[in-house]
Design brief:
It is built from six helices and seven strands; from the N terminus they run αααααββαβββββ. It is α+β, with helices and mostly antiparallel strands. The strands form two sheets. It has a five-stranded antiparallel beta sheet with strand order 6-5-4-3-7, covered by helices on one side. A two-stranded antiparallel ribbon has the order 1-2. A hairpin with an 8-residue loop joins strand 4 and strand 5.
């Protein structure tokens, strides 16, 4: 996008818009790499270390404990079946040794499993770090796109082409009562007004309009908007064709037509 915008010319509306879009995509890419690095460092690496280290040790010791329990059960069975005094004495000695080995292995396994609670607490903190990193990433991307949308919305509906001739490409509107819903050209920049908007701009009256999207005023001459609120709009002689004057109570300022839906 940046290369193509440079070829079209940064001085043209389309070239400038391509460059701005490309720069925004680069910022999103940087944020994406930061998310991957942060996630790997704060979440994936500790989890992988646990699975390949402590967890394998615990699994090994639990399997060893299971084998010791089987040996102990076998020793008890042999003692029950022993009838001769000599055989019984030998079986009792084997049972004591087997019981001792089982008890020692059970204690080792118990200590390892007791450490799981602290491991869980650590990984819970890692999980929180991972979620916070995702929140930061999505917030950054959302803000980048909002800024880009605001920049693209500031382009006029007519601009000077490379041959210094003014070019306006009209696009039919799907609904005549939607401000700015008259769609975009293939460049996404040149917009036309629906018929009722033209009537409003040529007349001296005012109309009610519903706000389609949130809009943050870029300066004191503009009016900030909240989605779904209803404001009063009217035209002012000499104002840019992409803007109307908006009024909400005692507040007044310019508003972009692409953010409005004219009400009947």
């Amino acid at each position: 996008m940046i290369d193509a915008g440079t070829e079209f010319g940064p001085g043209t509306a389309y070239g400038n818009a391509l460059i701005k879009c490309g720069e925004t995509q680069k910022r999103i890419g940087t944020a994406d790499r930061e998310l991957i690095q942060t996630s790997a460092l704060n979440f994936l690496t500790p989890l992988r270390n646990f699975i390949e280290g402590d967890y394998k040790t615990i699994a090994k010791e639990r399997k060893l404990l299971q084998n010791k329990r089987l040996d102990l059960d076998a020793a008890k069975t042999r003692l029950k079946k022993a009838k001769a005094a000599e055989t019984r004495a030998s079986s009792e000695q084997e049972l004591r040794i087997t019981q001792s080995e089982f008890d020692r292995q059970a204690e080792i396994t118990r200590l390892l499993l007791e450490g799981i609670s602290s491991t869980h607490a650590h990984h819970l903190r890692c999980l929180n770090d991972f979620v916070e990193a995702q929140m930061t990433y999505y917030a950054q991307c959302y803000q980048y796109m909002l800024d880009l949308q605001k920049q693209l919305g500031s382009f006029p509906s007519s601009y000077q082409c490379n041959n210094n001739q003014t070019s306006v490409v009209p696009v039919p509107s799907a609904s005549s009562n939607v401000l700015g819903s008259s769609a975009m050209t293939s460049s996404g920049l040149v917009m036309t007004s629906p018929s009722n908007l033209i009537d409003l701009k040529e007349g001296s009256g005012s109309r009610k309009a519903r706000v389609l999207y949130d809009y943050d005023a870029a300066n004191s001459s503009e009016l900030s908007l909240l989605a779904d609120e209803v404001i009063t709009v009217f035209s002012v002689v000499g104002m840019d064709s992409d803007w109307l004057m908006g009024e909400r109570g005692n507040q007044k300022g310019r508003v972009p037509i692409t953010y409005l839906e004219l009400l009947n």
